[in-house]
Amino acid sequence: MLHLGFSPVLVLVLGASLGAAFPRHALKKSCSLSKYQFLAPHELKAVQTMKEQFEAIMPLSNRMCNTMLFHRKWSTAELSMPDRVMLVEAELDLATTMLQLPATPRFAETRQRPLAFLTQAREDLRGCVATEAPSHQPSKKLAHWLQKLQMAKKTETTGCLEASAILHIFQVLNDLRCAALRQQWA
């Protein structure tokens, strides 16, 4: 028969109780975007294939937009790190939302890998916003662009938004890469 003294049993019970009181997911996660500094060639190839297929199947008339979301008078490099993260998070949110729209079976299959990659990147960025700058207020440049994005979501056609997101997907990936590189040196 196993005989345990009072102290070891007490330690085990307290350890289990404290572990339940402070779940692991409640601990603050660190923010690391380093895996986005250099994107894997297979991810880039999947995104390129998706973009090319989209350009081939999307009628030019559905691509017409009044709002030029990705034509900005400033560069991402001019933004602070928290602003960059907020920008890329909003860009990825738009892209993933548009990639979740109903599509032809062939395009739906082609976009699955890019959608999974972009969704993971968006979740990682959300973690960074929550841990590194939870109360950050965007600069005037970024605030103006975010307002422009919200207005476009209300006024532009779905085809326009989808085309903007997909046709500028490499700009979004470059913004993600810039945010990851900047974070390394911040």
TrEMBL record:
Keyword flag Isomerase: no
Keyword Nucleotide-binding recorded: no
Top-level taxonomic group: Eukaryota
Signal peptide: 1-21
GO cellular component: extracellular space
UniProt entry keywords in alphabetical sequence: Antiviral defense, Cytokine, Secreted, Signal
MF (Gene Ontology): cytokine activity
Gene Ontology biological process: cell surface receptor signaling pathway via JAK-STAT; defense response to virus; innate immune response; positive regulation of immune response
Compartments, record wording: Secreted
Similarity-based family: Belongs to the lambda interferon family.
PANTHER family with a match to the protein in the record: INTERFERON LAMBDA-2-RELATED (PTHR31943:SF1), INTERLEUKIN-28 AND 29 (PTHR31943)
Protein name (database record): IFNL3 protein
Lineage: Eukaryota, Metazoa, Chordata, Craniata, Vertebrata
